[in-house]
Design a protein that fits this description.
The chain has 385 residues and is α+β, with helices and mostly antiparallel strands. 36% of the residues lie in helices and 23% in strands. Strands 1, 2, 3, 4, 5, 6, 7, 14 and 15 form a 9-stranded mixed sheet that branches. α9 crosses α11. The longest helix has 27 residues. The chain starts with 8 loop residues before the first strand and ends with a helix.
Length: 385
């Protein structure tokens, strides 16, 4: 068990910041808990009476942890403040806004609770230290998606704009975890193509813009999709790209290794090895695999052929990613390591679990590169034989 309380999952962003004594952008250290990064950015913009576009950050941090990251605000005023669930501390200036390009990784301090015994975990930890663990995108990457509905981006790439719009509305309603809202969206779908009724049922600026567009242009679903905020489209594209990347790694591992442990998660099956034969270890330790785009660089023919199989199953081609639909957002390929080693891995403490009498707790400290999921390492070391 992890994240029993925010202090059990401490994350500190590692960034290379070109700080200066003056500049267009004031830099802040933001420490938070019980907030997603996007939600807190919107709250700050409203509270500080500034444009949301004036705020920039490098990466999203977990809502259920105690996290520290850097943001910039395009304003000379010092907006430092202290609230119950977050603090904002000015640390200098930069001549450019905060962005993912400035991130190097994250430091973690994680408390794993409710352990019957620590010896199996310690054994798994040594295996992970020696042989690494697979760098899958974890479930957090897919929040706001529903495997039963399919992927928004998949429908867009295949030109199924009507279906993409319905997926967007349904996943948005499910993300709120509000029964009344889900029932409202269900009524919208029941009245689909009765755009006056849909507009009457719509809530929020985005939904109203979508159905006003369809009221004027009844079959122009692409024009309706253009009303979705750019950030939400980017997140949906990233989720589909991450799914394809995970699927490529899954198929590659199944080809290479006969003895894999499976972990069933919301976003699919994660595969783990205990140890690796030397030839497979030599192959995986420096292997990088590309995320999707029209142009991708594969390390070998094996991975390329596996990817072609995946695309064919989705009725897609490489050229599909050169879509002109929703031109504000596009797919850009980058290389992602297939295998990771936790850096500076230390057992900080083994103790009695004060939240679960009779059980043990283990405190780990380590660092991972940008884009890696600490929860994937936790899954690896909690594997049972």
């Amino acid at each position: 068990m992890i994240k029993a309380r925010p202090e059990d999952f401490i994350v500190e962003e590692i960034a290379q910041l070109p700080l200066s004594e003056s500049g267009e952008f004031r830099v802040y250290r933001l420490t938070k808990k019980n907030w997603t990064t996007p939600d807190l950015m919107r709250f700050l913009a409203k509270t500080l009476s500034i444009s949301p576009k004036a705020i920039a950050y490098g990466g999203k941090k977990d809502k259920h942890g105690l996290t520290t990251q850097h943001i910039t605000i395009r304003h000379q005023k010092d907006f430092s403040l202290e609230e119950k669930n977050f603090s904002l501390q000015a640390i200098g200036f930069m001549r450019k806004p905060m962005s993912p390009a400035l991130l190097r990784g994250n430091k973690f301090r994680i408390t794993i609770r409710c352990l019957q015994a620590v010896e199996p975990v310690l054994h798994n930890l040594e295996e992970a230290r020696q042989f690494g663990f697979p760098n899958f995108f974890d479930d957090q990457r897919f929040r706001g998606t529903d495997p039963r509905l399919g992927f928004f981006a998949d429908r867009v790439l295949r030109g199924h704009y009507n279906g993409a719009l319905q997926i967007f509305l349904q996943t948005q309603s499910q993300a709120t975890n509000n029964k009344e809202n889900r029932e409202r969206v269900a009524r919208i779908l029941e009245n689909w193509r009765d755009w006056e009724k849909c507009l009457e049922l719509a809530r929020g600026l985005t939904e109203k813009r979508i159905f006003r567009t369809l009221l004027l242009r009844p079959d122009d679903f692409l024009a309706a999709l253009e009303k979705i905020p750019r950030e939400e489209i980017a997140m949906a594209y990233a989720a589909f790209g991450s799914y394809l990347w995970n699927e490529l790694l899954r198929r590659l591992l199944r080809q290479l290794l006969p003895d894999l442990r499976e972990f069933q998660a919301e976003s699919g099956t994660f595969l783990f090895w205990k140890t690796l034969p030397q030839p497979v270890f030599d192959y995986l330790k420096n292997l990088t695999l590309p995320t999707p785009a029209a142009k991708m660089q594969f390390p070998d023919d094996r991975s390329r052929q596996l990817y072609l199989e995946i695309l064919e199953e989705h009725n897609l081609r490489f050229a599909s990613f050169r879509t002109r639909a929703l031109s504000r957002v596009f797919f850009r390929s980058f290389q992602r390591k297939a295998l990771l080693f936790p850096e500076g891995l230390e057992i900080s403490e083994i103790k009695e679990d004060e939240l679960h009498p009779g059980k043990k707790a283990l405190v780990l400290s380590f660092s991972l590169p940008r884009g890696a999921f600490a929860t994937m390492l936790v899954k690896r070391i909690l594997l049972e034989d």
